[in-house]
Amino acid sequence: MSLPIRVLQFGEGNFLRGFIDWMLQVMNDQGLFNGKAAVIVPLPGKKDEPWNSRNCAYTLIKRGVTDGNVIDEHTTITSIDRVLGAYEDFDAFMDLALSPDLKLIVSNTTEAGIAYVPSDRPDMRPPSSYPAKLALFLHKRFAAGLPGLILMPCELIENNAGTLRKILLQIGEDWGYEPEFSTWLLGSCSFISTLVDRIVTGFPRDPELRAQLSKMIGDDDPLMDIIEPYHLLVLEPVAEDKAAAIECLKKELPFTDAGLNVVWTEDLTPYRTRKVRILNGAHTSTSLAALLAGLTTVEDFMKDPDFSAFLAKELREEILPTIDLPAEELASYTDAVLERFLNPYLNHQLKSIALNSVSKWKSRLLPTLKDRTPENAPCICFSLAALLAYYAKGLGQDSAEVLEVFRSTDQTDILQFTRRILSRVDFWGEDLTQIPKLYMIVSRDLSIIMRSGIRAALPK
Asked: What is the pLDDT of residues 251-303, one digit of tens each?
């Protein structure tokens, strides 16, 4: 049975395919949603293959251990209808704005994706930023007299939907859109802030693992995606009457009716703080240092005595004391996270975690540091020094602007190099040299890393 396109998805990456598209599949299989997604590749260079030749279907492999039970299963995901390039297929992308079937817009454009870019203009095909592309799309729908949509960004930033809505309103004003467009955005569209939690390791790059999995599923699927069993989606409407909004949105998005681990709440802050500081903070604080030590996967650093001791110290002494939740709840969640990190099936590559580490460190570790002090957060300070060392060596994978700053900043004097990088308000949202003693501690650790190697600098 052919299903209509009811979801516009910005981002074709592994995470959304192993999380949102999987959820759509679960709901469709139960006859609860009955709609597919049109996936928009937001950056230039879209590849039609292998999507077209496989009718946008792919194999999702779920592997892990839950409550002592081994899970190793796979399924075919058919919830994507088409894949379009925002640049290559601009007109087809924009035409979807006129679809009466469209209901939901989801996105995962990295932490840096929800940003205001003043140079974007409405005559671009398309504008550069995700919010500007979205503003152009939504204005076309508004001008056609169609009802608003539900917008559910999955980027890992605080108040992601509220931030997106604010930027859209600013763009509408800058571009001279009629005041009624802002009224339509605020009244006819629904914005939902999210917290997403699932480890998705994506396509198996290791040839031996790929061969093993291809044999298991009976198909050398170039789109196969690997996920852990655990998943959690927390949803908070951006609305004055959140309780009423939740009741309305539950009917439109029947996640819980399908048995998915989705929590509707009037305040996702405690969930976000717990997840970002423990799971994401642990990932970001260890990935670059572990890469510098020659490790390649999360399982590697969990089984390495030096790094497992570092992570235990960081969690116990620096991260957990900053989270205002019952100790038993924090301990239970932390134990679950560590079990997930030890999942032997995921082959979770540290290089994938290391992407865009500057913005990740800002959102995942800086708030914890500020709740402590540099003297009382040696592990977090060390993680910042490891980031500087990794990028200084030209190994970072980040925006061109970030990489150019590291490339062009003189590294001869470690102290001055550290001061210059930490003072970048555009990186960190503030001048980190204003945090007492931070740049001194970080430069000390960086000096040790550069002189004696990463393990010599690990806090004991």
From this structure: 999 999 999 999 999 999 989 999 999 999 999 999 999 999 999 999 999 99
Q: Which fold has domain 5-264?
A: Rossmann fold (3.40.50)
What residues does each domain of the chain span? Answer: 5-264, 289-457
Q: CATH topology for 289-457? A: N-(1-d-carboxylethyl)-l-norvaline Dehydrogenase; domain 2 (1.10.1040)
Residue 7, helix vs strand vs coil: strand
Sign of CA dihedral 402, 407, 410, 413: positive
Residues 201-217 as b or e (16 or more Cβ within 10 Å = b): bbebeeeeebeebbeee
Band of residue 218 on the pLDDT scale cut at 50, 70, 90: very high
CA dist list (Å): 321 to 29, 363, 429, 438 = 43, 18, 24, 20
Distance CA(186)–CA(188), nearest Å, equals 6
Cα–Cα distance for residue pair 333/195, rounded to 1 Å:
15
Q: Give the span between the Cα atoms of 370 and 224, in whole angstroms.
A: 40
Angle of helix 378-392 versus helix 281-292 axis, rounded to 10: 50
Two tokens, residue 387:
């980031």
The DSSP bridge partners found for residue 185 are: none
Residues shown for the chain: 460
Is the distance from CB of 160 to CB of 276 less than 8 angstroms?
no
Residue corresponding to tokens 């599923």: 217
- Report how far apart, in Å, the C-alpha atoms of 228 and of each of 76, 109, 198, 322, 340 are: 16, 21, 7, 28, 8
At 307-354, the pLDDT tens digits run 999 999 999 999 999 998 889 989 988 988 998 898 888 778 999 999
